[in-house]
Amino acid sequence: MEPVWLTFLNGTDVERLALGDAEILDAVEAGLRAQGRGETVIEPRVHLEPDPAFRGHFNVLRGYVAPLGVAGVKVVGDYVDNYKLGLPSEMALLNLFDPRTGMPVAILDATAITEMRTGAVTALGARHLARPGSKVLGHIGARGTAYWNVRLLDRIFGFEEIRVHSRRPESRTAFAERLERDLGKPVTVTGDWESCVRGADIVVEASRLPEPEPLLKTEWIAPGACVIPYGTMSAVELSLTDVMDKIVVDDWGQCRTGRFGALRAHVESGRLTEDTLHAELGEIVAGTRPGREDDAETTLFWHRGLSLSDIALGAAMLEKAAALGLGQRLRYA
Questions:
Q1: CA atoms of 256 and 269, how far apart (whole Å)
Q2: Gene3D superfamilies under this entry (predicted)?
Q3: What pLDDT is attached to residue 263?
Q4: Which residues are paired to 162 by β-bridges?
Q5: What CA–CA distances, in Å, run from 45 to 30, 72, 128, 252?
Q6: Residues 6+ apart with CB under 8 A from 207
Q7: How far is CA 225 from CA 134, 194, 199, 218, 238, in A?
Q8: Hey, where are the domains in the chain?
Q9: Which residues are registered as beta bridge partners of 38?
Q10: 20: Cβ contacts below 8 Å, ≥ 6 apart
Q11: CA dihedral 323, 21, 285, 228 (to 10 degrees)
Q12: Most C-beta atoms within 10 A of its C-beta, which of 171, 223, 292, 322?
């Protein structure tokens, strides 16, 4: 047999690719559009919790995107205390395969991919579900994905006011300083959840809670707002879904199962069902279901994180790396 080679993109390679905001959004949107057209296969994520004492777990995401001709598996660790060790809370590897033969194609450091694709899904959800004239963002959380949430949302909406809050003062201050530097506009650091969230046009909840706790109060949500909660441990009240005109998810198959997620209790209690769900985001992107139809609508978008988004962004990175001569060739067989 002839030698078989695959491409390895490490973290430095991914950084050198310097994908722009539009490249990230376009790649992730293409994956969502394929999903909405029924051109993908998504396997619900599975979890591995090595030991509860470690305060973390692994997520394993699997999928296939037919228009890209690639399948993929991502393994991402989610450890809430990693900041104490100077490590990201989420670190990941993405494996891409030829779906026709099973041959490995590439291995990518997917830590940045996870952050970028999560921010892109947040921003694309808001593009379709928030008021076009939204000017105030309230963002809870300062973890890795938070930066790309705010950056890509601001790319679309051009906010007049950005508020941020997180549990640790040092993390929220550093987060705001980075945003101010990169976005070229002031960012307000708040000392509590309410002053961050109340009255905002778009509310994103990306907190890092050790266990579910309803810190985001339904009464703070303004009529007509778009709320995007995706914390691993739920931070919302059960009443949140009661005030929503439309609830959208990234993939109902993933949202209706599993142990984690912002609306896990809402699914288990029957408040969110296939009948009360408005659509999956891919259906809206593909044009088969409407997004926001009225400025008065109050909307919610819950995303669990799609393998398709990782695969689509990873494939875009692999293509750009080939054009730029980046990455390492590794002999597989």
A1: 11
A2: NAD(P)-binding Rossmann-like Domain, ornithine cyclodeaminase, domain 1
A3: 87
A4: 137
A5: 21, 12, 25, 12
A6: 140, 141, 166, 167, 215, 231, 233, 235
A7: 9, 15, 8, 11, 17
A8: 5-113+308-331, 121-305
A9: none
A10: none
A11: 140
A12: 292
Residue with tokens 């390679």: 13
Question: Residue 1 pLDDT > 80, yes or no?
Answer: no
What does the pLDDT read at residue 259?
A: 74
Question: In terms of CATH architecture, what is 5-113+308-331?
Answer: 2-Layer Sandwich (3.30)
Q: What is the mean pLDDT of the chain?
A: 94
Residue at token pair 């987060």: 175
| 56-65 and 40-48 strand pairing | antiparallel
What tens digit of pLDDT does each residue of 20-67 get? Answer: 999 999 999 999 999 999 999 999 888 899 999 999 999 999 999 999
pLDDT of residue 44: 84
pTM of the model: 0.93
Q: Dihedral of the CA atoms 106, 111, 114, 120 (nearest 10)?
A: -100
Split at pLDDT 50, 70, 90, the class of 181 is very high
Return phi, psi of residue 128, to 5°: -95, -15
Two tokens at 248? Answer: 């959208």
